[in-house]
Design brief:
- The protein has 421 residues and is α+β, with helices and mostly antiparallel strands.
- The chain has eight helices and 17 strands.
- It has five domains: 4-52, no CATH class; 61-105, no CATH class; 111-199, Ubiquitin-like (UB roll) (Roll), CATH 3.10.20; 206-304, Ubiquitin-like (UB roll), CATH 3.10.20.310; 308-420.
- Strands 6, 7, 8, 9, 10 and 11 form a six-stranded mixed sheet that branches. Strands 12-13-14-15-16-17 form a six-stranded antiparallel sheet, with no helix packed on it. A three-stranded mixed sheet has the order 3-5-4, with no helix packed on it.
- Strand 13 and strand 14 form a beta hairpin.
- Helix 1 (7-14) packs across helix 2.
- The longest helix has 17 residues, at 61-77.
- It is flat.
- 16% of the residues are buried.
- The mean pLDDT is 84.
Length: 421
C-alpha cells in the first residue's frame, strides 16, 4: 500500500537517528534523489507503512527449489528416508503474481527393528542399564534423529549426575549405528559409547575443597576466613554472616560430583538476591603431585549488589470506564538488613484518574496500595532447623503486610492483608 516512489528516500531517512528525522531532512533527501517536487510533503502514510508493512515477496525459483530441499531434509531427519518433494510454480502474468505448489510423497517411515547398546565400560554400562526404562529410543519406534539427539542429552545428564564430570564434553563419545544392508524400513540400531583413547578411561569425580569468596572486585584480597562444615568462606569484612552462605551450598566435600547439585547451589546463591556470581565453575585439581586427579575443587566468587535499590515507574491509561488515568509506582529494596541475607521490600503503587461522571472534577477516582515484605533465606523458627531440613530443599520464609484504598465510581473500600510463607 505504500507509495513505492518514496522507497529510496524513506530507506535513507530511516537510517538516520530518530532525533534527526524531521521535515527538513526529508526535503534534503528528496532533492538529492532528484525529486524536488516532493519537498514539503509529510509522507506520513508511506512512513507508517514503511515501518510496519512488509514488502511483497519477489518470486525466486532458486529459493523455491531450496525450500523443497529443506522440506525433504526435514522429513528424512524424522525417519521418512524415501520422501520425495516436487514443486511447481503457478504464474499469473496479468496480475503479476505467482504461487508455489509443493507436492510431498513421504512413503513409509523407517522403523527400529532392534535396539542394542555397546558400552565397553562396566560402570557406565551399569548406570545406563539401571535407567534403561527411561530411554527415549525404543524398539518399534520410527528412527527419528530428534529422538536420538534427545537421548544423548539424557545420557549426558545421567552420567554427570553420577559423578562423571564433563562426560561427552566434545559430543563425540556417544553415537548410533544403523545397519541398512538388509532393509531400509526395518533397521537394527546400536548405541555406542566410546571415549577417545587420548583422554583415557572415564573417572568418577568427587568434590574436594569448597570455597566462597566475597569481594567488591575479583582482584581484591580477603582478610577474614571462617569454615562451617566443609565450606570455607573468605570475606573482606564481617558485613555478611557466613551461615546463610553455608546453607546455600548443597554439596559436601568427599561426595560424588553431581552437576544438578552444583546448579542448585548456584541458584541458591543467586536467590539470596545479595550477590552476583563471577565464577561458579568447579575446576579439576591438576597439581604436580596429581596431574590427573579426579577431585573437583568448588569455588564461588561473589560480588555484593548495591545495598539499596529504588525503582520508579509511571503508566498512562485510557478506557471507556476510566477516561484518563495515571499510575505511578515505587519499589524500594534494602538488602541484608540483619547481615544474614534478609531483604526488605517496600512497594507503593496507585492510580488516579477521571471517570467523566462528575463534572468539574478532573481526578475523581483513585486507588492506592502499599506492601512491605521481609524475606529470609531460611525457615523462621525459634530454634535452628539446619539439622532437620536438608540444605538441598533450599528453605526460605517471608513475612508480608499490605493495604489498599479504593474510591472508584461510587465504590469505596479499604483492604488489609498479611501473610507468612
Amino acid at each position: 500500500m505504500a507509495n513505492h516512489k518514496y522507497d529510496t528516500i524513506l530507506n535513507k531517512y530511516m537510517n538516520y537517528p530518530s532525533h534527526l528525522r524531521n521535515g527538513k531532512l526529508r526535503d534534503t533527501l528528496s532533492i538529492r534523489a532528484g525529486h524536488p517536487e516532493y519537498v514539503g510533503r509529510s509522507m506520513l502514510l508511506s512512513r507508517m507503512l514503511h515501518n510496519i508493512g512488509k514488502a511483497p515477496v519477489i518470486l525466486d525459483e532458486n529459493k523455491t527449489r531450496l525450500s523443497a530441499n529443506g522440506i525433504k531434509k526435514y522429513l528424512i531427519y524424522r525417519g521418512y528416508w524415501d520422501t520425495e518433494v516436487e514443486y511447481s510454480i503457478k504464474k499469473d502474468s496479468s496480475a503479476k503474481k505467482a504461487q508455489n505448489i509443493f507436492t510431498i510423497t513421504h512413503k513409509d517411515p523407517t522403523y527400529i527393528s532392534e535396539y542394542n547398546h555397546n558400552i565397553p565400560y562396566p560402570d557406565i554400562r551399569a548406570i545406563y542399564e539401571d535407567n534403561y526404562d527411561k530411554s527415549l529410543v525404543k524398539k518399534g519406534n520410527i528412527l527419528n534423529q530428534v529422538h536420538l539427539e534427545n537421548e544423548i542429552k539424557r545420557i549426558n545428564e545421567l552420567m554427570r549426575a553420577e559423578g562423571y564430570y564433563n562426560f561427552n564434553s566434545n559430543n563425540e563419545e556417544i553415537f548410533f549405528t544403523a545397519d541398512t544392508l538388509k532393509s531400509r524400513k526395518q533397521v537394527p540400531l546400536t548405541l555406542e559409547i566410546r571415549k577417545d583413547t587420548i583422554g583415557g578411561r572415564y573417572k568418577r569425580h568427587t568434590i574436594g575443597k569448597i570455597e566462597i569468596y566475597i569481594k567488591d572486585k575479583p582482584s581484591d584480597s580477603t582478610i577474614i576466613e571462617k569454615k562451617i562444615g566443609d565450606v570455607t568462606i573468605r570475606r573482606m569484612d564481617s558485613y555478611f554472616k557466613s551461615r546463610p552462605l553455608w546453607r546455600a551450598v548443597t554439596v559436601d566435600s568427599g561426595e560424588v560430583y553431581n552437576q544438578k547439585r552444583i546448579d542448585l547451589t548456584r541458584r541458591n546463591l543467586l536467590a539470596l538476591d545479595n550477590f552476583s556470581i563471577v565464577n561458579a565453575n568447579p575446576l579439576t585439581r591438576r597439581s604436580k603431585e596429581a596431574p590427573n586427579d579426579s577431585i573437583l575443587d568448588l569455588r564461588y566468587t561473589l560480588i555484593p549488589l548495591q545495598r539499596y535499590n529504588l525503582k520508579l515507574a509511571t503508566d498512562l491509561h485510557y478506557s471507556q470506564i476510566l477516561n484518563f488515568g495515571i499510575s505511578p509506582s515505587l519499589e524500594f529494596t534494602s538488602r541484608n538488613i540483619f547481615r544474614g541475607g534478609e531483604n526488605l521490600n517496600l512497594s507503593l503503587s496507585g492510580i488516579i484518574g477521571t471517570t467523566g461522571n462528575e463534572k468539574g472534577k478532573f481526578f475523581n477516582a483513585y486507588e492506592t496500595s502499599a506492601e512491605i515484605s521481609l524475606k529470609f533465606p531460611r525457615f523462621i523458627s525459634p530454634f535452628s532447623m539446619d539439622k532437620i531440613i536438608p540444605r538441598r530443599f533450599s528453605p526460605s520464609s517471608s513475612i508480608s503486610f499490605g493495604a489498599s484504598v479504593q474510591n472508584n465510581i461510587g465504590l469505596g473500600r479499604i483492604n488489609f492483608n498479611g501473610g507468612i510463607n
